[in-house]
Automatic annotation (TrEMBL), chains A, B:
Pathway it works in: Isoprenoid biosynthesis; geranylgeranyl diphosphate biosynthesis; geranylgeranyl diphosphate from farnesyl diphosphate and isopentenyl diphosphate: step 1/1
Highest taxon in the source lineage: Bacteria
Function text: Catalyzes the condensation of farnesyl diphosphate (FPP) and isopentenyl diphosphate (IPP) to yield geranylgeranyl diphosphate (GGPP) needed for biosynthesis of carotenoids and diterpenes.
PANTHER family hit by this protein: FARNESYL DIPHOSPHATE SYNTHASE
Provenance organism: Gymnodinialimonas phycosphaerae
Keywords: Carotenoid biosynthesis, Chlorophyll biosynthesis, Isoprene biosynthesis, Magnesium, Metal-binding, Photosynthesis, Transferase
Cofactor(s) required, per the database record: Mg(2+)
Reactions listed under catalytic activity: isopentenyl diphosphate + (2E,6E)-farnesyl diphosphate = (2E,6E,10E)-geranylgeranyl diphosphate + diphosphate
Listed name of the protein: Geranylgeranyl diphosphate synthase
EC number: 2.5.1.29
Length: 290, 290
């Protein structure tokens, strides 16, 4: 099965499970709303690509890993958009969850999705309990405290930011989770896969900085120039537009050379190249850009 | 070791782990603030009491179960107190987390504690992976959607509330988690323990309704009369003060007779009786009360 429908089917099954038939209807609806439309599903795509490059011997396990990562990523977007954080009215071109439903329902949708991401892994654990536990350990490390995405956002409340800890936690953690969980779900040691995830995460951060600086709200499908508004560190401020694009290309070449030797090495390199194309912004006219 | 220090030690170890040495300092501090002072620690006490009544063969496992329940309970209090829910300025006699820190940090502290509650269980999983998975399944069911505490709060956003689903999810779920996880952590079938948890949960709900209706903010250590203010269902409105107290007593007798046969049956019945004493409000003068 091609990756995209495989991912959508797994996410949709997890949401249906969380909606049950005894749930409060609005919150049940908010869960589905929070995870659709999916956009590129870049993290679960990376996770499954790595699992497949390693042979993907237990597709239920890699599906669960990919779904867990995407659910918790969506949870972080829902909470991020809330008034006390980015106060973003739109996300992926439609009203953000707290706008479409309410703040209490957005808060609860995020909480429920975090819990659902662990539950997805418990439901496949009978295939291989210690492997499921390993996946949950990586998921927890990458999302909670002291080094996961919660920690990353926590740095934004500090007067003195540890920039490398900030980026590693805020954006990098879920990308390293994606490569590591992909490998672990296939029964491989996750450690050699950390660098690939970290480099894709770095590339993604630079690309995001470029888009935030260069594009407007209608192109982004979410508010633009948020880094400038919230005075957050941004690669464009640091290197300029052309410098940031050069840096993006360097990081992605590094990513490709970091791929551990495995049956699907060439396929994975191709996936990283495609990610690169998707990430690199179409340059706007030079005056507008710099 | 007596229960109280055992619980505090386990919770404190989990928080130290989540604080790590690379974490953003304010969020790290907010985590400790969110779980102290502990109050009665009623849910972990029930969990450990049940585990001990079943022989408690793996104390690391029961400690982890009790800690997981309390961390996620504290997470729900932190999120509940936020302006978009109860907008409560005080909790356990001190400023609530969003007042002491900020709204973003309260949101992140809650998210991190939810994740930490699952992580605590992954860290003891090597003792018995399938038992740890079973504990995580109960934890997920009791806290997420469609029937856990998130669902319970979700019902508050519905025009038409399914009252029994609401109470079962909002308050009952974590009490049934406490008895079931206590039994499961000792290697026993959790199912026969569901009723004890459900009845203690019901009793707790009635006691909470009584306190909310009868006490003032300084006695409660949190805002009073919230049910009336938010027009939420309350046992005192339904049965009157004396009727609600009678109901509390009936539920607790039912709880005692539901205790499954086990080595520590008598000790457990005593624990429920003590809980009852703690829960039953000291009656204020009759005029003030009715």
């Amino acid at each position: 099965m091609p990756l995209k429908p495989r991912i959508e089917r797994a996410i949709s099954a997890a949401i249906t499970h969380a909606q049950g038939n005894i749930a409060p209807p609005k919150l049940a609806s908010a869960l589905a709303y929070s995870v659709t439309p999916g956009g590129a599903r870049i993290r679960p795509t990376i996770c499954l690509s790595v699992a497949m490059a390693c042979g993907d011997p237990q597709p239920e396990m890699s599906d669960a890993a990919a779904t867990a990562i995407e659910l918790i990523h969506c949870a972080s977007l829902v909470h991020d958009d809330m008034p006390c954080f980015d106060d973003a009215d739109i996300r992926r071109g439609k009203p953000s969850v707290h706008k479409a439903y309410s703040e209490p329902l957005a808060l609860l949708a995020g909480d429920s999705l975090i819990i659902a991401s662990f539950e997805v892994l418990t439901r496949v654990a009978h295939h291989d309990p210690m492997r499921a536990i390993e996946l949950m350990k990586i998921l927890g490390e990458s999302t909670g405290m002291p080094g996961g995405i919660c920690a990353g956002q926590g740095w934004e409340s500090e007067e003195k930011i540890d920039l490398s800890a900030y980026h590693r936690a805020k954006t990098g953690a879920l990308f390293t989770a994606a490569t590591r969980m992909g490998a672990a779900s296939a029964g491989e040691d996750p450690e050699p896969w950390t660098e690939l995830g970290a480099r894709i995460g770095e590339a993604f951060q630079v690309a995001d900085d470029l888009r935030d600086a260069l594009y407007d709200e209608s192109t982004l499908g979410k508010p633009a120039h948020q880094d400038e508004i919230h005075d957050r560190p941004n690669a464009v401020t640091e290197y300029g537009v052309r410098g940031a694009i050069k840096r993006l290309e360097d990081i992605l070449s590094g990513a490709i050379s970091s791929i551990p030797s495995c049956p699907g090495e060439a396929m994975l390199a191709e996936m990283v190249r495609k990610t690169a194309e998707r990430l690199t912004p179409v340059m706007p006219p030079v005056q507008a850009a710099e």
